[in-house]
Amino acid sequence: MMGPAAENPDAYIAALSGWQRERCEMMRAAILRAAPFEETIKWTNLVFTANGPCILIRAEEHRVLLGFWRGKRLRDLDPRIKASGKYELGNLVMTEATEITADAVSRLAADAFRLNTELGNPAART
Description:
Elements (H helix, E strand, L loop, with lengths): L8 H6 L3 H17 L3 E5 L2 E5 L3 E7 L4 E5 L13 E2 L6 E5 L7 H18 L7
Antiparallel strand pairs: 1-2, 2-3, 3-4, 4-6, 5-6
Helix pairs in contact: 2-3
């Protein structure tokens, strides 16, 4: 199941409930504190961009994904990030029992921002 259909990031969060809403609110705030991201809705996900796509949050029925376009490079900060698909994608899959702090999310987001700044748009194919 994909995230809720929403016209904007506020509506995305408002459509959630329970632990998923609390977790997504916390992560969204931590990401926005970490760096000057732009946020939007793409592919029914909450997506944060900085020189291209950088981070996504996707709430599902029984889990929440925190995805990074350059996630493979962030595994030293959190080894729970698992490679996903081709390229450098990586996701941290969370259930209600998964522990993560706002500080940890901010560190990941700041490093993801730095990588996009240094390496360019991860969606650009050379």
